[in-house]
Amino acid sequence: MSPPNDRLLSLLYQRPSCIPISASILPAAWMKYREALQEVVDRHPLLFGEPQTRDYDAVAGTYVAGEHIDAWGCVWSNIKTGMESYVTGHPVPTREAVHTLKAPERDIGFPHGFMWLRLSDLRGFDQIMLDFGEEPPELQRLIDIVLDYNLRQGRLLLERLTSPGQLVGFGDDLGTQAALPISPAQWRRYLKPCFERIYRPFRDAGHYVYMHTDGHIWEIIPDLIDCGVNVVNPQVRANGLHNLARVCRGKVCVALDLDRQLFPFGTPQDMDDHVRECAEVLGMPEGGLWLHAELNEDVPLENMEAVFSALETYRTMYS
Questions:
Q1: What is the DSSP letter of 235?
Q2: Backbone dihedral angles phi then psi of residue 67, each to the nearest 5 degrees
Q3: What is the C-alpha to C-alpha distance for residues 178 and 32, in angstroms, rounded to an integer?
């Protein structure tokens, strides 16, 4: 993990000493590789810190097999401990049900999928697509219910941030593999005002907004910047490296999610080439780039080692 000051300098395009790097390993990978993975991790203290004792089977929350019900009443199903669950039960299956929907009284902050995915989780993907296709009045009503709840969560979170200049993280996957699920025009009409109202108070208070968002989203990255995003965390494969360079380079800091769809199938040399290319295309001496790798059980240990080594090597490309 890179020094926090370098992250801020890179965010502000103020010449960090190196490209900030990080890596995360999902529970299923620890459960599969165990001590062998620990040996790899221990060789990379720059990324992971000093060696530590680990319970390889320590898994909690929705990573545990079974069904989980969240505060909104969505049912999350998981068939394999160590992997993440997904929503299979949608509490608002009809438009009529929107009229009786009440937001939770319990405050849960901003879990992953707090706005766009929350709409999909409540209605189901097919139904929310029909809603955006037909634009009934229940669509705006649903959006308003979810937005009002999120604005309350924002006020509560902002009260707890007692000093300015903090990096505040949000996560909502806005894209599919190859496109936005709705048109950019519809996104700007229905969702852009929501994200702006959620993020703007944090920016006005002197904080920085970090937004993780999977999928193909490069067309609306300028809009996310308008909404107040300082650091955007996109997937490289779903967007294309040069598309990201065109809309982000010099305009917003990119915490690039390296190619998780390459990691399981490429060679160690492919890992090195990929990290180097990302640093070359998106990086610059002034900053604006963080590099992050997330690895799961489908990635061979030799590829994990190669990713970690490449991150450590190319972090100094502009030093």
A1: B
A2: -110, 140
A3: 31
Which residue is listed with tokens 């490296």? 241
pLDDT tens figures, 117-140: 999 999 999 999 999 999 999 999
Asked whether 173 and 214 are in contact (CB, 8 A), the reply is yes
pLDDT at 3: 65
Give the span between the Cα atoms of 11 and 315, in whole angstroms: 15
Find, among 109, 119, 107, the residue nearest to 146 by Cα. 119
CA–centroid distance for 288 within its chain: 17
Tokens encoding 125? 């993907």
Closest by CA to 171, choosing from 124, 114, 125, is 114
| Neighbour count for residue 282 (Cβ, 10 Å) | 21
Closest CA to 180 of 120, 137, 225: 120
pLDDT digits (tens, 9 = 90+) for 64-95: 999 999 999 999 999 999 999 999 999 999 99
Query: DSSP E strands: which ranges in 90-198?
Result: 167-171
Q: What is the pTM of this model?
A: 0.96
Report d(CA 161, CA 155) in Å as an integer: 10
